[in-house]
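Example (one chain per record):
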Amino acid sequence: LQCLLNLLSNAVKFTMKGFIGVYAELSADGSMVRIVIEDTGIGIREKDLDKLFSPFIRLHTPGESVTPGTGLGLYLTHKLLREILNGDLLVTSTYGVGSRFTMRVPIDA
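Predicted structure:
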């Protein structure tokens, strides 16, 4: 639940207008749940995607307002999903269009 709340919090923080969607589905064999959080927020530059899950990373472009935060939320969410829950966190994003975060978690986690 903490992972989902963190991703939703980020979507709200970085979406000034448009929408935030949350979708969930069970795998065909019932062994995994996939939860998608997508938004029409500011998006993430392609060059920054590889840094996204590093600790204390705050991504912003000069001239943009800086959103408060520690730079630990996505790092901890990614770490928890992978190391504790045996799941995964994937991201696709287009700067200026929005982002899509996909959590995949085994049901037995």
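Caption: The CA atoms of residues 45 and 64 lie 13 Å apart.
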